[in-house]
Amino acid sequence: MRKYKKAILPTGFKASGISCGIKKSGKLDLALFFSATPAKCSSMFTANKMPAAPVILDKYYLKNNSRFNAIIANSGNANCFTGKPGLKDAKLTSQALAKALDLNSESVLVASTGIIGKRLPFSKIKCGIPKLVSGLSAHGINQAKKAIMTTDTFAKEFSVKFKIGAKDISICGIAKGAGMISPNMATLLVFIFTDASITQASLNKALKIAVENSFNCITVDGCMSTNDSVMLLANGSSGNILINSGRNFDLFSKTLNLVTLELAKMIVRDAEGASKFIQIKVSSAKNFIEAKNVALAIANSNLFKTAMYGENPNFGRIFAAVGSSGAQVLEKDIKIKVSSLKKKDIFVEVVLNQGNAEALIYTSDLTPEYVKINAEYN
Q1: N or C: which end of the chain has fewer CB within 10 A?
Q2: Judgement on whether residues 48 and 176 belong to the same structural domain of the protein
Q3: Active site residue 187
């Protein structure tokens, strides 16, 4: 297995990224990911009950279609809280790209991230599509990964190459996310590409496992977004024996887990205004759900997060957060261990002495810079 801290597109995939004028800064804001061979798609979306227009449209397309050729994503505008006009804009975006690529519009997925409550400037996207399409190349991922960023300070990217039988398989993932990060899922867009040949059921299973172990284990501020989307495309171009179950599935799933966890950790390391990367392990819990709930209660405690920023060993805040989680734990059974607060990476372990289950959550500290960024975000 070979790991790369950069995006290397698998066989058959191309990408591009341009500035079409959505962002006033003139930075890249429109990305395209394309596979000439129709790809199987597995996706997971926000649990927010007020989903953005692209999420609504994608769910409809996924319900009625099993193969996809392209994803078009914009940053700078979330196309959310825009009602029927927003849904129309998302559909027009899909149709305009499909026409340019000579595809069925329902084989084009859409994604948006940015400001909520403003109409998507579809005319700018439409004008940019010809340039977006003409720029498609295997190296276009270097522009595409930047075109999905908002408050991110760096692009999140990770690739892995491995073998199934005699065939080389690749998995490449890119992501955006820095604030409004909370499980189920975080404010993120994640696009993952693989040339593996795999059944739809196995693709769905692998993604569900990977998301649960990565993007649903991170939190920055406990705020749930409206646009969260994780999309995994598999075009089968490697020609491997079809992955269905057994050792080949386990290897694919393990590798996908590696990619998503690396991306998830990068999101936390780039958390808005953060100065600390914090791992919270809750062990000896009755069950996994209890362990995760306790870890999240600590990770989302503003008192805990500000203490970590101030390098203040006030661990009573951890104790209080455990109690707020609802876990039935006796005071005498709780053991708290914390690594040096002077370092950028902090490890917290809370032992409940209730059972054998454990959970690991990743979070950041809360700083004045976080307040400044979000006070000015407009």
Answers
A1: C
A2: yes
A3: yes
pTM above 0.85, yes or no: yes
CATH of the domain at 186: 3.60.70.12
pLDDT tens digits, 37-83: 999 999 999 888 889 999 999 999 999 998 999 999 999 999 999 99
Question: Which three-class secondary structure string do you get for the chain?
Answer: CEEECCCCCCCCEEEEEECCCCCCCCCCCEEEEEEEEEEEEEEEECCCCCCCHHHHHHHHHHHHCCCEEEEEEEEEECCCCCHHHHHHHHHHHHHHHHHHHCCCHHHEEEEEEEECCCCCCHHHHHHHHHHHHHCCEHHHHHHHHHHCCCCCCCCEEEEEEEEECCEEEEEEEEEECCCCCCCCCCCCEEEEEECCCECHHHHHHHHHHHHHHCHHHECCCCCCCCCCEEEEEECCCCCCCCECCHHHHHHHHHHHHHHHHHHHHHHHHCCCCCCCEEEEEEEEECCHHHHHHHHHHHHCCHHHHHHHHCCCCCCHHHHHHHHHCCCCCCHHHCEEEECCCCCCEEEEEEECCCCCEEEEEEEECCCHHHHHHHHHCC
User: What's the pLDDT tens digit per position in 303-352?
Assistant: 999 999 999 999 999 999 999 999 989 999 999 999 999 999 999 999 99
Domain boundary among 206, 234, 269: 269
